């Protein structure tokens, strides 16, 4: 016995009912459930669709689809940060490496000024505030799009919201663990610490530039690479 289109649509509703909000994850689960239900019917052809579906669902354990969603989230987040690293690496090749070196040297020399610590803090705050603003703006934009299309894609959500939010947290942790907590200690740092702090602030700016400008501009291209069916949605 084969599943009908009505059965497939019922499976999509079933995944949504069990808190799977992303269309791409729904599609993977529906495909898995459909194949499993047909195998169950081979063994027990008299079983109803609902009973076969529930039997298949029980194989996911007490947490249902939650583990699948979490695994997919981890996979897509790793993909997002690999893309960020790919674009950052371009800034360490000619001709962009010249600008990167100038940025590094500029921040290294800046540390000799009395108010350098405050300027560093200002850069961190500006980048993080921009990321928070972008998250809010993108959240509203995604909601409008989801309401219009009825589809929400996990990687699109990571590009627009989750990835940027994770980036902001990484920057906060980097500042907290790697920088002195006052201006006096900042000025007394040795050459190695000064070079390290200049490198961190340079990477921060590149990180912010890639996550806030480069990736959003290439979002459609990246999404179509991830989901061939995305352009038809």
Q: pLDDT under 50 segments (min length 5)?
A: none
Which structural class is indicated by helix and strand composition? mainly alpha
The biggest beta sheet is recorded as:
none
- Cα-to-Cα separation, first versus last residue: 30 Å
Compute the CA-based radius of gyration. Answer: 24 Å
Q: What's the average pLDDT?
A: 88
Number of helices: 10
Q: How do the helices and strands follow one another from N- to C-terminus?
A: HHHHHHHHHH
Overall strand count: 0
Number of domains: 2
Shape: elongated
Beta percentage is under 5%
Helical content class: over 70%
Task: Give a topology summary.
Blueprint: H1 5-17, H2 23-43, H3 49-58, H4 66-89, H5 96-110, H6 116-149, H7 154-178, H8 183-187, H9 191-217, H10 219-226
Transmembrane segments: 91-110, 116-136, 157-175, 195-215
Keywords: Membrane, Transmembrane, Transmembrane helix
Structural notes for this entry:
It is a single chain. The protein has 2 domains: about 5-65; about 75-230. The protein is about 80% helix and about 0% strand. It has 10 helices and no strands. About 20% of the residues are buried. The mean pLDDT is about 90.
What would a concise description of this structure say?
Helices cover 78% and strands 0% of the residues. It is mostly helical and 233 residues long. The mean pLDDT is 88.
């Amino acid at each position: 016995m084969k599943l009908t289109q009505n059965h497939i649509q019922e499976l999509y509703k079933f995944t949504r009912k069990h808190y799977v909000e992303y269309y791409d994850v729904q599609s993977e689960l529906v495909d898995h459930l459909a194949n499993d239900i047909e195998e169950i019917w081979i063994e027990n052809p008299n079983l109803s669709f609902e009973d076969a579906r529930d039997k298949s669902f029980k194989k996911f354990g007490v947490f249902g689809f939650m583990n699948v969603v979490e695994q997919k989230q981890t996979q897509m987040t790793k993909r997002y940060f690999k893309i960020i690293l790919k674009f950052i690496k371009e800034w360490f090749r000619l001709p962009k490496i010249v600008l990167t070196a100038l940025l590094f040297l500029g921040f290294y020399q800046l540390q000799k000024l009395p108010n350098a610590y405050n300027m560093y803090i200002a850069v961190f705050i500006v980048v993080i505030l921009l990321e928070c603003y972008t998250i809010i703006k993108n959240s509203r934009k995604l909601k409008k799009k989801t309401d219009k299309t009825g589809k929400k894609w996990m990687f699109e959500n990571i590009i627009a919201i989750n990835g940027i939010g994770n980036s902001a947290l990484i920057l906060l942790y980097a500042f907290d663990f790697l920088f002195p907590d006052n201006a006096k200690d900042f000025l007394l740092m040795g050459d190695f610490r000064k070079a390290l702090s200049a490198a961190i602030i340079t990477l921060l700016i590149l990180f912010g530039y890639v996550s806030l400008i480069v990736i959003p501009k290439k979002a459609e291209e990246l999404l179509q690479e991830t989901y061939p069916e995305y352009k038809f949605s």
